Amino acid sequence: MTTGLISNIQNYSIHDGPGIRTTVFMKGCPLLCAWCHNPETQVFTPEIVWYKDKCMGCLTCIEACPKDALTAGKNGIKLDMEKCDRCGKCAEVCPTLAMERLGKEMTVEQLMKEVKKDEPFYEESHGGVTLSGGEPLSQDAFALEFLKACKERGYHTTVDTSGFVPQRVMEQVLPYVDLFLYDVKHLDNDQHEKYMRAPNEPILRNLRWLAEHHANIWIRVPLIPSVNDDPDHIRRVGELTRELGLKEIYLLPYHKMAQAKYKRLRLPYTLGFLEDPTEEEIAPLADILRKQGLNVHIGG
To answer: To 10 degrees, what angle do helices 279-290 and 231-243 make?
Structure first.
């Protein structure tokens, strides 16, 4: 039975495709974007996090840990990552949910049971189901089976993807995807490798393949100050979008709301010095794309 590692299920989502949607965040991503807003979805295994503000110091988690990986210190609960096997027993017994296991194994049947709860919203709003992450197509067997199940129920399906997967995966899922939310982070390969830790060639190749096979695609550009917000780069992204026969493009302004997640996950946040782009800074970039005949959206 095929299982997938799910990070989160977000109900009543209005930013991940048309209408009201259920967004399923899958765990694991082949990219390591410096500004990732969902760092809890980067690794392909479960993780344990502790929330200081929820902890009441009962030490129940320490007693439950079979690996003696937890200790109490002056700053709260300390987790020994070498001992921890991510079993999640500490999270199961925590009365205040201060301990959390990120990543839950689910079958397609279990996930569909959750998704079906939102079915009335899909019908009223012309919404549906969105697979996101992480990179949802990295768990390709599970993603394919789940998308097939959604189409059997008549759901509109959207995949939010970085495009960094083998082309065969795109070929397999295309018949079951109504819309791709496709990230174009940087057209310069050196810059892509610097900030995403991976080349952009597979991403651009898959984008062209999908466009050639008449996939419905909305281009999404995370707008990162000093990284990819140069007017010439935005113009080049617009030219590529037009060349592929696409019309919809979304500029997603950088923000620092994920910094607390990085701290809980014991990860460095290297772009904390950047300021969120202002409306005055975004407007001329959007105008460049509009003058190219594209439908420009800010955010979402």
So the answer is: 40
Q: How many domains does the chain have?
A: 2
Q: Are residues 29 and 117 in the same domain?
A: yes
Q: Are residues 116 and 91 in the same domain?
A: no
Q: Are 121 and 150 in contact (CB under 8 A)?
A: no
| Average pLDDT per consecutive 10 residues, the chain (300 residues; last block may be shorter) | 94 95 98 95 94 94 96 91 94 96 97 96 95 98 98 98 98 98 98 97 98 98 97 98 98 93 89 94 98 95
Contact 238, 230 (CB under 8 A): no
- Residue 139 sits in a domain of what CATH number? 3.20.20.70
Q: Give the C-alpha separation, 212 to 159, whole Å.
A: 18
From CA 244, how far away is CA 240, in angstroms rounded? 6
Domain range spanning residue 218?
3-44+104-298
The DSSP annotation for 234-293 comes to: HHHHHHHHHHTT--EEEEEE---TTHHHHHHTT---TTTTPPPPPHHHHHHHHHHHHTTT
d(CA 206, CA 269) in angstroms, rounded, equals 29
Distances (CA, A) of 205 to 7, 40, 165, 212, 295: 28, 28, 10, 11, 23
Compute the distance between CA of residue 156 and CA of residue 178 in angstroms, rounded to an integer: 6
The answer to whether 186 and 224 are in contact (CB under 8 A) is no
pTM above 0.70, yes or no: yes
Classify residue 134 by its DSSP letter.
Answer: S
